[in-house]
């Protein structure tokens, strides 16, 4: 008989080597290559009968009948509810609240039918304790403690649930793969089998995935390509707020977020995050300013804080929380060169209040304003909001959705907005707040600190 072929596969990126290597040559991870038996070829699956090509114009669109969970923030991130037959991947740090969120969501769709919650990490008694804390007692939520994928799918076929939760994909294994649970081969095979099951039966499947030290979902990158929706559950350990962010969504907008608060009775949705993030804003303090950020389709008002002080030990420190570190260094260089604010030899700390992470460049003007306010020791008018992208030449560039940002600021009783001049010239509608369009960084500094 032919001997099984032994390979060494990277558990971070899926790279395959015929021999063990200390460092993966593909992704650069150390000690990530694990010995595995070569996986069998994947079985062929056919989701539908063989069909002939049809003109695009002759195809009628399918009207999605989404299942609402009753959690508005969760439904918003999914694009308006759960699409039947969808495969949804949820990742997040340990203890962030993934299992709690899905248990609450499953309790919200029981009027559509039974749901199946499969756990490979916790016993049924542990899940029962959590459900009592969340005041969930429905008989339509069926619990199963199992790690064999074939047994799980067989059980699901018998009870035909409207939704199924797999907690977590790293604990599941397929009998046809000789490698251990959590390996690249097992994760990929189990995800594909669950995808075929979801599409054939119309059952919505939620997969909980572990994350690596750098915050990405553990397992092969192909896992995120297989699923329909990828959601990250984010939050700082020192904050009670949790951010649910859609990275990929075939049935709705990507980069949509939902805001929750972790309480003793589970996750509580926050429908007005702007009010929460600005509720404890200090009055008359330097180094603080408010900006408007667009997360998906929703404008959110956020507070940026900066602290600029002389370096004590000679080598200045640069620390940023909630914004890109390299972006902050770039803005420091622009501020020194174009605005004449000397920051060499200064410790600079930048923070986004509330634990939210901001990636869009529209926050550039807010970061620069907060640093300038701290360096000059002059507070910014508390009724002023700023946003705009800053170029390397000190120009203020236009950003998207300026109207939505200003409408949200108007709701919160802000009286003045400093925005890119290009946006100010293209505004539609009337606004009660004073709108000042600026073209250069120095011009913005004059309005803010004159």
What does this structure look like?
This protein is 26% helix and 25% strand. By secondary structure, the protein is an alpha/beta fold. The chain has a nine-stranded mixed sheet. A four-stranded mixed sheet has the order 13-14-16-15. The chain has a three-stranded antiparallel sheet with strand order 2-1-3, with no helix packed on it. β9 and β10 form a beta hairpin. α9 packs across α12. The protein is globular and about 70 Å long. It starts with 5 loop residues before the first strand and ends with a helix. The mean pLDDT is 88.
Summarize the structure.
By secondary structure, the chain is α/β, with parallel strands linked by helices. Helices cover 26% and strands 25% of the residues. Helix 8 (325-339) packs across helix 9 (364-376) and helix 9 (364-376) packs across helix 12 (441-449).
Quaternary organization: single chain
Taking all Cα atoms into account, the compactness measure Rg is 26 Å
Summarize model confidence as the mean pLDDT.
Answer: 88
Largest sheet: 9 strands, mixed
Q: Class of the largest domain in CATH? A: Alpha Beta
Low-confidence stretches: none
Question: Strand pairing plus helix content: what structural class?
Answer: alpha/beta
The N- and C-terminal alpha carbons lie at a distance of 85 Å
Helix % is 25-40%
The CATH superfamily name of the largest domain is: P-loop containing nucleotide triphosphate hydrolases
Strand content: 25-35%
Number of domains: 3
At CATH level 2, the architecture of the largest domain is 3-Layer(aba) Sandwich
Shape, per Cα inertia axes: globular
Total helical elements: 12
| Spatial strand order of the main sheet | 6-5-7-8-4-9-10-11-12
Q: How many strand elements?
A: 21
Could you please say which CATH topology of the largest domain applies here? Rossmann fold
């Amino acid at each position: 008989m032919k001997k099984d072929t032994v390979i060494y596969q990277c558990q971070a990126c899926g790279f395959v080597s015929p021999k063990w290597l200390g460092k993966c040559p593909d992704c650069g991870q150390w000690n990530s290559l694990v010995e595995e038996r070569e996986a069998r070829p994947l079985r062929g699956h056919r989701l539908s009968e063989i069909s002939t090509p049809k003109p695009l114009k002759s195809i009628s669109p399918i009207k999605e009948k989404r299942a609402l969970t009753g959690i508005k923030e969760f439904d918003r991130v999914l694009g308006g509810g759960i699409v039947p037959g969808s495969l949804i991947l949820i990742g997040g740090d340990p203890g962030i609240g993934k299992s709690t969120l899905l248990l609450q969501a499953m309790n919200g769709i029981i009027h559509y039918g039974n749901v199946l919650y499969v756990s490979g990490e916790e016993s049924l008694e542990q899940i029962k304790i959590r459900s009592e804390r969340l005041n969930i007692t429905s008989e339509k939520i069926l619990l199963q403690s199992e790690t064999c994928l074939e047994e799980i799918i067989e059980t699901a076929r018998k009870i035909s649930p409207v939704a199924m939760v797999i907690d977590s994909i790293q604990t599941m294994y397929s009998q046809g793969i000789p490698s251990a649970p959590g390996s690249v081969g097992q994760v990929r095979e189990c995800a594909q089998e669950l995808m075929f099951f979801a599409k054939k039966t119309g059952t919505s499947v939620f997969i909980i995935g572990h994350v690596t030290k750098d915050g990405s979902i553990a397992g092969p990158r192909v896992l995120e390509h297989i699923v329909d929706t990828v959601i990250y559950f984010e939050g700082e350990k020192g904050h009670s707020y949790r951010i649910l962010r859609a990275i990929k969504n075939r049935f709705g907008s990507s980069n949509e977020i939902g805001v929750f608060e972790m309480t003793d009775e589970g996750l509580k949705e926050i429908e007005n995050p702007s009010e929460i993030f600005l509720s404890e804003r200090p009055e008359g303090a330097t180094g603080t300013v408010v900006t408007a950020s667009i997360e998906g389709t929703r404008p959110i008002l956020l507070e940026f804080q900066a602290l600029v002080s002389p370096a004590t030990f000679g080598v200045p420190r640069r620390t940023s929380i909630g914004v890109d570190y390299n972006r902050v260094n770039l803005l420091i260089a622009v501020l020194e060169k174009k605005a004449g604010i000397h920051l060499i030899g200064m410790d600079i700390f930048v923070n986004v209040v509330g634990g939210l992470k901001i990636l869009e460049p529209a926050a550039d003007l807010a970061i620069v304003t907060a640093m300038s306010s701290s360096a000059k020791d002059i507070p910014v008018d508390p009724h002023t909001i700023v946003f705009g992208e800053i170029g390397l030449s000190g120009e203020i560039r236009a950003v998207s959705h300026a109207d939505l940002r200003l409408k949200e600021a108007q709701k919160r009783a802000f009286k003045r907005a400093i925005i890119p001049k290009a946006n100010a010239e293209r505004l539609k509608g009337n606004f009660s707040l004073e709108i000042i369009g600026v073209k250069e960084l120095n011009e913005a500094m004059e309005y803010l600190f004159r």
